[in-house]
Design a protein that fits this description.
The chain is mainly α and 210 residues long. Helices cover 81% and strands 0% of the residues.
Amino acid sequence: MGASQSKHRITVQDKAILDMKVQRDKLKQYQKRVQVVLDREDALARELLKKGDKRRALLALRRRKYQEQMISTTDSQLLNLQQLVETIEFSLVQKDVLFGLEQGNQVLTKLNQEMRIEDVERLADDTAEAIAYQNEISELLKTQMSAEDEEAVLMELDELERQESDRLQINMPQVPDHPLPVQHPVEAGAQQDDEEKEDELSLNKQPMLA
């Protein structure tokens, strides 16, 4: 009986594999939920650009990029941990796996906090509390984003500005590219023509002198 209990005892490796599966499943759920937030941040950036508020538009895009990177990085880390467990003796990588799982839990907790639409809307508010929040997020993102991420965000902002410029040009009335014909008053011109015709008929009716 004791041998049977030992055979079915859950090992540290079993628990680590189960934790990885739980984290990956939770991450997939978060990806679907956070997409709503990402879409709203993109729309907000466009709205702010239309108002000429480039600074806040850039903040919305930075926040969006940061959240996308969190999801991508966490997914890659969990996949790497899974491959470690499957290909290397667990006792040799146990410390790394457990540390990675702890980090994954921390990131998932942060992701859960990033899913509130109301926080996105605060990026456009002018209240003192909202401005303080915007400054806090701006300072945080400066330390969390790489130079490559920042360059990608700036390129995205340039593209949104180009799209907005194109939209404004399409909506503007078209200016003719050729000179307009000179317009004459119709009635005055018609009256003058009639008078000239009457004078010509009058001259033709006069008797010719022998």
